[in-house]
Amino acid sequence: MTDGLLVFEGEQGQAALSASTSLFLQPEIVDLTFQSVPPGLELLLGSEALTTPFTRTVIVGSENSVEAPSPQTSGGVIYAFGSWSDGGAQSHFVVAPPTPATLVASFAPAAVCQDGLDNDGDGAVDYPADLGCGSPFWPTESPACQDGVDNDGDGKIDWNGGPGGGTPDPQCTSPSRRRENPPGSCGLGFELVLVLPLLARWRRSRRRA
Prior knowledge:
The chain is mainly beta and 209 residues long. It is built from one helix and eleven strands; from the N terminus they run E-E-E-E-E-E-E-E-E-E-E-H.
């Protein structure tokens, strides 16, 4: 836009002249390609959910938000996000480079404590909501110290006494502990199975004597 002012003397006063021009901007653009391992999973580019692989044209130097939703299901397998090829977080911004680029989101089969399911039916899903999950990679949502069973035969159940309000097992220092008996122990019930036959044999030998 350009403006000019033309001044006339005398009674004619002042008169203004103006003119306009059109300016077309041609920004530099570049292609960003997005892939996933395994292919066919969903990624978010801005607010758009797209199935990999896909390519979008963006302005060089622009910031683009990307996200890898997790968990996802493909082919009956539940996958959890692992990493981006650029080292970014699960959700982060990508500055468009001057040359075409490819970003890859890698996934792996999800452990039970990160699969988005309530596997043990306790109303809590995955780590850290489910107290039975010691980490996202815990092998079970219902370990020995949260399964409602007296696993070591000592008359005590779980970290909190179990659903029946029994006596808590002192070996269960947390609900995510995967064994009720102390490390290196076989459990009281198993030990009795071994000891009682020996005791009976000793008593019979005493009677014969």
